[in-house]
Design brief:
Strand order of the largest sheet: 10-11-13-12-14-15-16-17
CATH topology of the largest domain: Rossmann fold
Domain CBM20: 1-98
CATH class of the largest domain: Alpha Beta
Shape: globular
Pfam families: Esterase (PF00756)
Largest sheet: 8 strands, mixed
Number of strands: 17
Structural class: alpha/beta
Keywords: Hydrolase
InterPro entries: AB_hydrolase_fold (IPR029058), CBM20 (IPR002044), Esterase-like (IPR000801), Ig-like_fold (IPR013783), Mycobacterial_A85_antigen (IPR050583)
Radius of gyration: 21 Å
CATH architecture of the largest domain: 3-Layer(aba) Sandwich
Distance between the termini: 51 Å
Strand content: 15-25%
EC number: 3.5.2.6
Helix content: 10-25%
């Protein structure tokens, strides 16, 4: 099937390259195979494979920061091509997120959320990163110590002001749980590095997408960020009280972290993990992290490989003697590779991970 872009914004840079990102390429922006080629008539075109389900996609200039936007600058929902797929689809790009005046955004974070540091040093990577912090509802009025969970893609956790595609509502979820006797934890949200996201959230290199700085990224969390949090806040620093989690590439690096740092992370929330990035990730099944509580959750609408790969991982873990009661393996028929899905599933996954029993 051919997708044609016949209209682009007037302020599109002359040297811009246009790409499709969607469920046919694992939602990786800037993939060379899906770069649209300029046509003699001034349009841009690329072919995408036919699928046995609706095709979802967006147009970018190579990164999520430069994804298309609606004419008023607001976020665009995924474009959807329903079955049966036509031979050709023409689309119009109204605006680019980074080149349009966006509607005023409101902060939606609860009072329990703060920016710990807008430029926390990452010496292993030679850069800095914004770090968000959620403190439990009763933190200020108690002397308790609390478990901690470190979550990737911090822009999307608490505050719609910073999110480009919707926030998870982690703060509202935990505030509500605190009112009904649910588990209370400190949440540390680590902003993703924009163009460095693939590098930082992948422990291995991929021949097409690069990456491979995930080991240094985890060293930053283990050697710098966690010691700082434990020194400045009332945490329970032991592995049994410390979790790590994320979605997509964030799920991938969280799985790797759990397997390689079981003395640090005793819990891992692995949502829609990008196991396709490297077959080497399946070697984690042989690691000794059997005391870890592990969430494995994905949606059946996320791509041809998602459930197949996750099931393969689960079966390999079982074959290596991983306790079945330590894994919460779940699939959802309607689940898509989107923030709305992870927002919906976070409360139940979190409660299982941090249940007192």
């Amino acid at each position: 099937m051919k997708i044609i872009i016949d209209t682009i914004p007037d302020n599109t840079p002359a040297d811009a390259h246009l790409y499709l990102v969607g469920n046919f390429n694992r939602w990786q922006p800037g993939a060379p195979a899906y770069q649209l080629k300029p046509q003699p008539d001034g349009t841009y075109a690329v072919k995408v494979p036919l699928m046995n389900r609706p095709i979802e996609f967006k147009v970018t200039r190579g990164t999520w920061e430069s994804v298309e936007a609606a004419a008023d600058g607001s976020d665009m929902p995924n474009r959807i091509i329903k079955l049966p797929s036509p031979e050709t689809v023409a689309v119009q790009v109204a605006a680019w997120t980074d080149l349009v005046v966006r509607p005023p955004r409101k902060h939606t974070a609860s009072p329990q959320v703060q920016v710990l540091d807008a430029a926390f040093e990452m010496p292993e990577l030679g850069r800095t990163r914004r770090i968000w912090l959620y403190l439990p509802l009763h933190y200020a009025t108690s002397k308790e110590r609390y478990p901690v969970i470190y979550l990737h893609d911090g822009q999307n956790l608490f505050d719609a002001y910073y999110s480009f595609s919707g926030e998870w509502g982690v703060d509202e979820t935990l505030d509500q749980m605190a009112q009904t006797g649910g588990p209370q934890v400190i949440v540390v949200g680590i902003e993703h590095g924009g163009e460095e996201r693939i590098n930082e959230l992948t422990p291995y290199k991929n021949p097409e997408y690069g990456g491979g700085d995930g080991k240094k990224y985890l060293q930053f969390i283990v050697q710098d960020l966690k010691p700082y949090i434990d020194a400045h806040f009332r945490t329970k620093p032991e592995a049994e009280h410390t979790g790590i989690g994320g979605s997509s590439l964030g799920g991938l690096i969280s799985l790797y972290a759990a397997a390689h740092y079981p003395q640090v992370f005793g819990k891992a929330m692995v949502l829609s993990p990008s196991l396709w990035f490297s077959n080497k990730i399946f070697k984690v099944a042989k690691k000794d992290f059997k005391n870890t509580r592990l969430v494995l959750l994905a949606g059946e609408q996320e791509g041809e490989e998602m459930i197949t790969n996750m099931r393969q991982l689960y079966e390999q873990l079982m074959a290596q003697g991983f306790p079945e009661e330590h894994i919460w393996y779940q699939t959802r028929a309607d689940g898509d590779h989107s923030e709305w899905f992870w927002r919906r599933e976070f409360p139940e996954a979190f409660q299982w991970l941090y249940a007192k029993n």
